[in-house]
Every structure is written in C-alpha cells, then in structure tokens.
C-alpha cells in the first residue's frame, strides 16, 4: 500500500511538471526565394509557439496572411495564387524537440521532429536548429528548405516572375515561462 | 494486485496524456491567439472591368500603366481585316497616391481626347469581426476632346464632359464578384438638339474566376434616356489573364471608346447584330519609391 502512495505522489508531481511550459514572446518567420528574375523575401511577425521543456513538446502556429512583402501585389499573389490563404489560413508545426541538454547554457544544436502543415498538406519533417537557454528565456532558431511541391503549392503556368521551387525558411522564436 | 492495476492505469494514463498534450499545444495556441490577420484581398483582377472601372485600387505608391485598344467592327469585312485596320487607342496612368486615393490620366486617339479622374475608396469589403459586405468606391472624372472642328465654333466649355460614379462591389464567393455602377454623365455639347446634356445610367458587372489566373468578365450599362438617338447601351464580355505584374484583358464589345464619358453616351453598335469590336487592355504594375518595410 505504501508503494501505492509513492506512485500516486510521483504521478501528481509529474502532472504539475507537465503543466509547466514556455510561450513565445516574439516570433519571426522569414522566407527567401532566389530566382533569376527576382529575389522574393517576406517576413511574418504573427507566429506563436508553445514549448514544454519536460516533454520536449513543441508547437507553432503561423497565420499565413501575416506575411509581409515589399510589394503589395506580391503579397496578394502569395495569398491568392500560391497559398490559398482563404482556404488554408494557417500553417503549423507540431512535434518534439530533442538532442539538447537542459543544463547547458549557451547555444546548442537540437532537432525538431514532427508534422509540418503548410497549404493544408502535412509532412513529417526533421529540422536541425539551435536552442539557447538564457535564464527564464529560451531562444530557438533554424534555417531549413521547403519544397513547394511537397505541399502541393503549384506555380501557375502563366507567371512572368520566376519562383524558386524550393524556398529557404528562417525561423526565430523567443520563449518565456508561463505560469500554467 | 492493487499495485499492478495502478501501474497499468498509470501507463495508460501517461500514454493518453502524452498524445493529448501534443494535440493540446496547437489547440491552446488557437485558443489564445485570436488576432485577425487580414490582408488586402482583391475583388477583381484588374483596375478596369472591361470598358469601365472596377472597385480595385492599388496600395499607396503603385503606378499602373494601361495600354488599351479597340479595333473596328468585326462585321466590317475582309477588306477592313475584320476591323483590325481601325484601331482606337488609349494610353493611361493610374497612380495610387494614397491607399484610398488613386489619380489617373489618359489620352485617347478617338476625338484626340484627354481624360482624368480621381478614384476614392470609401469602404473595403471585410469578412472579419466587423462585417462589411460591399466595397464602395467613388469615381469622378472629366474629359476634354481636342479634335479640330472647324465647322462649329468650339471653346473650352464645349469640349468638356463629366462623369460621376458610385462603384459598389461584392465578392460573393471566392470565385464570383458582382459590381453595380450608378452613373451620372454630363456633356456640355451634344450631337443633336434632342439629346440630353445630362442623364443617369446604371451599370452592372460580373467577374467569374475560371482558374487561378483566368477570369471571365461581363459588363453592361443601362442608360435612362427618353430617346436613344441611334446610340446603344454598351455591352462587353471579356477575359482577364493575370501573369504577375501584368494583366491582359481581351474583350468583345459594341463600344469603341474607353472612357465613361465616351462609351456610355456614344456607343452606336448593335452588339447582337454583329457590330462588335475586338479589343484589349494591358496593365503593367510598378511599385514606385522605396518598397515598404517588411520587418516590424
């Protein structure tokens, strides 16, 4: 019976640990498409994220319409012709972070593994990146390629500006501890 | 025994917890962040529907260069190469001085006419928290024909025409947009004494998205006139082909003029009798000045 209480105690303790998490205070996603005619770059300051240090669970939510382009017409085409943001207003990542040591401070490598959903299409990905524990803050960043084909993003045939079939995505997030 | 049950229960509990915790994170994010990200969405592909304007205006700093042609009547026969020998051309510039204000000028070969207009955005259709079912745009314009007419004494007043329009459009679904255009036209000089100097008309337009880059458009203006004096209501049907910075618009219409003060009062062709003009508009968009900052 004693064992039973100990197990219950551990169980309750683990539950309170489970509830501890980190939430983004700032998030930025940038993408870059390099093509002969024109380089295209856009920045999104709308994403939010949650990270659970104990389990390594990680999730990001990206409002597609929050991408800003230097030219307003490009932004319209991005939403209208490529991302169909009316139908798919959000992109997301949901998975687990591994390969890091919580006790180490300073920048270290880590892997994010999980489901990346863009344009309504979900793919399993493994993205290498950096994580940095700075007191109560956690900083994450990564650079990875996204193939348009993998997410059923078609390049319209009658388009004069070229768009790379693979775009480079740069993400950087700053997390802070939440009470919950 | 109790221990065993407890352990089994805990294993299942943790299994459940770990999966549900993952689902929760995304749902939690959706719950917490209710920010609405609205980007400027367009009702029509181009700033002209066919002959007339759409509610579309560009964001501040955009300049659109328009080249438009209307050829002669298709039923004019092989000798005229089905109208291709007679082209009426308009060159135009539309500049978005502010997000809400676009100023435009144009030069038409027909009547050696110059036109200018101001296009003011009043309301933008919005499907967000504040529902706004229509986009409203006010258009005021004037045109001056500079053709020499030695047979009558001409002065500046006699050469001027005016137009005022309220453009009301609604994107009904992702692929259908409708527009209504109550219009007031005033011409200082008319061809016949019985023709009115000023009259009202109502236009209606429809745009249907055939594919991501191709749209089908229809445009019609109904004029409230006692006598039509050999003129007709302008009808037009066309397609928009969008290719990035360009929009190519190809159309068939009974009108040969390309400004409101021209094609609304003075269209003479009978569309259903084959008096049809083939034509096109080509628009090229330029973003002037510094491109806008993309970072916060």
TrEMBL record, chain A:
Residues spanning the signal sequence:
1-19
Question: InterPro entries attached here?
Answer: Lipid/polyisoprenoid-bd_YceI, TTHA0802/YceI-like_sf
An example of a Pfam family matching this protein is YceI
According to the entry, every stretch annotated as the Lipid/polyisoprenoid-binding YceI-like domain falls at: 26-176
Keyword Zinc attributed: no
Matching entries from SMART domains are given as: YceI (SM00867)
> Domain of life here?
Bacteria
The answer on whether this UniProt entry bears the keyword Protein biosynthesis reads no
Q: Which Gene3D superfamilies match?
A: Lipid/polyisoprenoid-binding, YceI-like
Q: Which residues cross the membrane?
A: none
The UniProt keyword set, sorted, is: Signal
SUPFAM superfamilies found in the cross-reference section: YceI-like (SSF101874)
Q: What is this protein called?
A: YceI-like domain-containing protein
Q: What is the lineage of its organism?
A: Bacteria, Pseudomonadati, Bacteroidota, Cytophagia, Cytophagales
TrEMBL record, chain B:
* One Pfam family here: DUF5777
Species name: Cyclobacterium lianum
Give the DUF5777 domain ranges: 44-286
The name this protein carries in UniProt is DUF5777 domain-containing protein
